Prior knowledge:
This protein is an all-alpha fold. The protein has one domain. It contains 6 helices and no strands. InterPro entries: DUF1761. The chain crosses the membrane at residues 6-26, 54-74, 80-99, 111-133.
Amino acid sequence: MDASLINWPAVLVAALSGFAVGGIWYSNSLFGKAWMADSKLTAAEIKKGNKAKIFGFTFLFALIMAANLAAFLAEPKTDLAWGATAGFLAGIWAFGAIATHSLFELKGWRYIFINGGYSVVALTIMGAILGAWR
């Protein structure tokens, strides 16, 4: 790893892309209703959540993930294809962790695929951004 090859504006954009993907992924038009049902949450309960805490920590964790992925990609050979591939592979890793936790929490496969699928897609896009923006 060559830390001088980390593009910090790209890391920031990659982290923000997680919000865009999440907004679409967990919308009622896509998987939001199924996720809420499998999470046993109601719209009223979600509205009661502390938005500053939720979105603040979500951004912090997205930034950590993007910076970590950028560190792995900090090589001269990195390009869009390798960035997307590395992001996809990181997403598979995250999927496995989500599946493991969810199985012990007695969650169903739909829940696992919704949350794990988000991680795969979000990290693939993060990797593509980091690989393309050299």
